[in-house]
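Our preliminary data section would be incomplete without showing what the modeling component actually yields. Below, a chain of 231 amino acids is followed by its predicted structure, encoded as tokens that our downstream tools consume directly.
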Amino acid sequence: MLDSAGACSNSTTAGIMRVLTVNPTHPRDDRLEEAVDAIEAGGVVALPTETFYGLACDSFNVEALKRINVLKGKPVDSPNLLLISDPAQVEDVADSVPERFHELAELFWPGPLTLVVSAADRVPVEVTGGGRKVAVRVPGLALPRRIARALGRPITGPSANLHEQPACRTALEVAEAFGEGLEMILDGGSTAAGKPSTILDLTGPVPRILREGILPASSLEPFLPEMKVSQ
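Predicted structure:
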């Protein structure tokens, strides 16, 4: 529940978690500044996207990246997808991008399509999971885009849930899942989607959907007739 100071108390812990109410489509500058300050300091911040709530940290802060995997209880070599402010920010983390990347970005971003491209050598293994790929998305909500822009580099965006548990759609669900493990929750209300983003891998000779989410494969087929869908 929320306490009188606007913090969220978790009945499963003895502590109080801070919550800042935000308008996810038109976030106030002071809210953005507080969130960016927390991320720059190495913190993990929960925030809404157009799919579910996600866990945001600096994509180049190795200790913060490790914390996300520990918080979620997932394998340490699990990759973490990234949220970017605009298509140009992919240059911070990609080794190269195919021409179809730009075409798809123009068609479907901002929105719930995650594109997998070749990762630059400087990208931490805690982002790639030790592989050579990085998954990026320009989210539909302005809040994460503006945080990534203000930070000056991509932020992480894995779903805010414990490993193999349902993704959180409200700030209260996030607080109940993570207790005191987060620096901050940005409460933008309930998220609308009941599915995650669709993940499309562009690194191979043929584009391949790794996960069909809120964006149906049928929406991509007219532009990628050779596309495959992983089973």
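The CA atoms of residues 209 and 217 lie 8 Å apart. The longest strand covers residues 113-119. Preliminary results of this kind motivate Aim 1 of the renewal.
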